[in-house]
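Sanity check

After download, print the first record. It should look like this:
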Amino acid sequence: MHIASQREMASTIYTRLSSAVVPRRTPGPGMQLIHLPHVFPEQWIASLPIPVEDKPPGQTVALVDGAAFHREVSEEAVTSAYAERPRTRVFESIHARSDGWYSLVALRLAGLVRHRVVATLYESSAGDLNFGAHDDVWDGVIVQLRGAKSWRLWPEPHGQPREVLTRAGDVLLLPRGVKHEVTTPDRSVHLVLAVTDAPLAASA
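Expected structure tokens:
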């Protein structure tokens, strides 16, 4: 797709994301936990090209199978393992592999929050095994691109969990350190824009 089209898509996504993220940022790295439904029209978000079938050169793909997380070198091995039973394919650091809209969004978001942003795409089959309850070391700006994902969230470590279902077009802001567990009621593709604690250089 022409780079101008990618830029137009990135501009639309960034504009809506920035209006969602900025009011919910906390001083330094950090953000509020919130589920924002219908940030993007479902049909529009579903039309965005994603690097699943047409991967950029050098794109690594990891397979999640329960608690196991491993990388396959062979494309045939990845395809075979994914088809064998429900799993999640993780397309790592997609912002570094191409000039697609997701790369442009990650770059502009990093400029906004002044911290490095890593973009990762997760494609899950319905009923896949998951990591179990865990937390991350980054603030996640999560955009549901296809299907639906079920999230169990623990805003307080020892409190009651909160149940959230993200559908195509929804955004979930997930602060670092918040324990969460995911399941896949339907095929799901979601993008994680991970805001790290690495600050951008003053000239970036």
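If your output differs, re-run the checksum step. Summary of this record's structure: The helical segments are 3-21, 42-46, 75-84, 101-113.
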